[in-house]
């Protein structure tokens, strides 16, 4: 069993949990994820490692309550235990080694959580990091201070203009690339449509673009095929080849269609669960 050693509310329906998982904490790297199961009847869900402390044996996750399992998870308290907490999963990608020593990290919504360990690592590696983070509005923009600490420059965007630039992260990304293309790469993490827009935007500038794929996953170890994505002429599995990948050739339309495959079942599971707990 895996104890929840701390919980914190970061915004409406967004929580940060620290989990005691010494073996995972010892090995996990930025960009990798875990799969957890709350109890015997639960489904496995993938969540990205946001922070880890090998000495304390803890791994930090941040999640948004979007459906049955994440809502159930959000009801747990410090001292409660999870049945499974498996990791590290996914490939670790060392993206460094470019000629410019400058990179751009773009985060959208809950994607700011997986972005944090990446920009922190780039900063520790001595790269000049420009961050662009966004959310629908100020109250749901997470990790601003933490990401700012890892960036040389940070741009904030909100869809409703309640904080920073009034508009999308892609607006600021375009401005930056119009000024200079001397970047080793752009890393964009967020909803699939945001990653697709960033990928399409970056392509003509000739700067490499990485994304982190949040496909549906069942086993997380390359066996079930539920996370498969078309990348050019190849088929890749986001759980073992990714979740981070070069974005240029990814078929995002297909990926987004595959993500909607179980909407009815997801809705049904949520309704059944809410009835069970009397909500
Ligand atoms: C590698 C990876 C890392 C992730 N990291 C994070 C993270 O750090 N924080 C976070 O909040 N979310 C993260 N996600 C998404 C998270 O796994 C889903 O939100 C979660 O599985 C939803 O489960 P649910 O039962 O609460 O909702 P469901 O009822 O299952 O689904 C609600 C919505 O989430 C989408 N969804 C369902 N299952 C998955 C799945 N396995 N993967 C992706 N989307 C799904 C559905 O299309 C639907 O729109 C990550 C996903 C992947 C693949
Ligand atoms: S989640 Fe099953 S193959 Fe990737």
Give descriptors for this structure.
279 residues; alpha/beta; Elongation Factor Tu (Ef-tu), domain 3; Rossmann fold; 3 domains; seven-stranded antiparallel beta sheet; seven-stranded mixed beta sheet; 8 helices; 16 strands; globular; binds flavin-adenine dinucleotide; binds FE2/S2 (inorganic) cluster
CATH superfamily of the largest domain: Nucleotide-binding domain of ferredoxin-NADP reductase (FNR) module
Approximate strand percentage? 25-35%
Query: Structural class of the helix and strand makeup?
Result: alpha/beta
Number of domains: 3
Major sheet characteristics: 7 strands, antiparallel
Mean pLDDT: 95
What level of helicity do the residues show? 25-40%
Bound compounds: flavin-adenine dinucleotide, FE2/S2 (inorganic) cluster
Rg is 18 Å
Uncertain residue ranges: none
Distance between the termini: 28 Å
* Large-scale geometry: globular
SSE order: EEHEEEHEEEHEHEEHEHEEEEHH
CATH topology of the largest domain: Rossmann fold
DSSP summary, beta strand count:
16
